[in-house]
């Protein structure tokens, strides 16, 4: 059985996919870094021809199609740690609980002091559920994940559709919260760090904390799917399964792009159309993207050219947190103060530029150190003075 190329005891293609997912996540997050995106109707707010076209491309090809990849990779890694603990005769639950508690701490600090759109807190909560769920056999895990995701999503879409049919005005489609838009611009575009901090807390309570509870239906199933793929050894057996992966890639890309582009094809941006686009089309397209990267990682030339991207994925916690630090310093008033002052194309180019710098940084950092700075803090918090240095055969833990 052929396996994917590895770095040490890490799966190279797994880190590569994490790296590309982080680029897509940054491009999507950039919308809320430089504008009051949580409160606007994007179709009217980004009304200039250039912004309208840029948003269309981001909305179809980027939004809601990269965070599912990262969530699945979180689940993949969690199951690998579970299997490693079993193989070494180590009690998995206590170590993972400490790991997740520290991740939750990172998430809280990130959400309250840097950017309210944090996902680490939600991942940590879902991870605690996964301490039990990871023990479920792979076939059952896939079925449970599918049902937990699809049933609430389809019921919600159906409910919104019925409400829209009976009273199209009840959902206030196209509504923008002018008061909150003004508050966001005042806090982030013109306010002090203290004023931004106060507004950030209110945002996180409204969106972040609420989103953490909704994560049971939106994030947890994706993590479970990733864990099931890990049990199937998807990355390790990618060369063996490349024919099937190619078929899934073609079908997922075609269906995902079609669903996500449908509101533009049909020219009806109803609330339920948007939900279908995000909740159904987003994850399907994510699977297509993931399959493409997995297949490309079977080509040595691809691995060679894009290996630095895998380095950014290898230190994904550091990469993710520093994206928020850098972006908020660029856009918020206590930094360069560009909030609300750049168009979407410029914002996207800034995102690509930030990621390119991070890739270079990761390459240089990992030449000297075996893990990223925040990964080291995380690991130190788990093990303290007894932090292990190497596994058997000299492989890094």
Automatic annotation (TrEMBL):
Annotated coiled-coil positions are none
Positions of the DUF418 domain: 231-384
Designated name of the protein: DUF418 domain-containing protein
The entry's keywords: Membrane, Transmembrane, Transmembrane helix
UniProt cross-references to InterPro entries, sorted A to Z: Bact_Transport_Assoc, DUF418
Species the sequence originates in: Sporosarcina highlanderae
Name the domain of life this protein comes from.
Bacteria
| Regions that span the bilayer | 20-40, 60-78, 90-113, 119-136, 141-163, 204-225, 245-265, 285-306, 318-339, 345-366
């Amino acid at each position: 059985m052929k396996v994917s190329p590895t770095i040490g005891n890490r799966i190279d293609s797994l880190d590569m996919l994490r790296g590309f997912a982080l680029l897509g996540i940054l491009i999507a997050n950039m919308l809320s870094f430089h504008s009051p995106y949580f409160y606007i109707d994007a179709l009217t707010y980004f009304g200039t021809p250039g912004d309208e076209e840029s948003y269309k491309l981001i909305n179809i090809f980027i939004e809601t199609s990269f965070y599912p990849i990262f969530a699945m990779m979180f689940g993949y890694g969690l199951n690998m740690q579970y299997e490693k603990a079993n193989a070494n005769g180590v009690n998995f639950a206590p170590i993972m609980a400490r790991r997740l508690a520290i991740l939750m701490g990172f998430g809280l600090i990130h959400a309250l002091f840097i950017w309210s759109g944090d996902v680490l807190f939600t991942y940590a909560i879902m991870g605690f559920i996964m301490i039990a769920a990871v023990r479920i056999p792979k076939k059952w895990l896939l079925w449970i994940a599918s049902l937990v995701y699809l049933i609430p999503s389809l019921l919600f879409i159906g409910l919104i559709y019925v409400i829209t049919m009976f009273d199209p005005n009840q959902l206030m489609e196209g509504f923008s919260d002018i008061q909150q838009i003004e508050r966001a611009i005042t806090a982030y575009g013109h306010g002090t760090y203290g004023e931004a901090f106060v507004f950030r807390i209110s945002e996180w309570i409204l969106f972040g904390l609420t989103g953490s509870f909704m994560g049971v239906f939106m994030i947890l199933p994706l993590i479970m799917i990733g864990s099931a793929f890990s049990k199937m050894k998807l990355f390790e057996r990618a060369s063996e399964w490349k024919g099937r992966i190619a078929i899934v890639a073609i079908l997922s890309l075609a269906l995902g792009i079609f669903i996500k582009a449908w509101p533009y094809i049909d020219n009806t941006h109803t609330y339920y159309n948007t939900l279908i686009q995000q909740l159904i089309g987003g994850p399907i397209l994510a699977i297509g993207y993931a399959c493409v990267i997995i297949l490309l990682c079977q080509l040595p030339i691809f691995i060679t050219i894009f290996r630095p991207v895998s380095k950014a994925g290898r230190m994904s916690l550091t990469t993710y947190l520093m994206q928020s630090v850098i972006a908020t310093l660029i856009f918020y008033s206590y930094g360069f103060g560009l909030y609300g002052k750049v168009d979407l194309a410029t914002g996207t180019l800034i995102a690509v530029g930030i990621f390119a710098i991070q890739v270079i940084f990761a390459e240089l950092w990992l030449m000297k150190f075996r893990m990223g700075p925040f990964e080291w803090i995380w690991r130190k918090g788990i093990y303290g003075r007894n932090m292990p240095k190497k596994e058997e055969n000299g492989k890094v833990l």
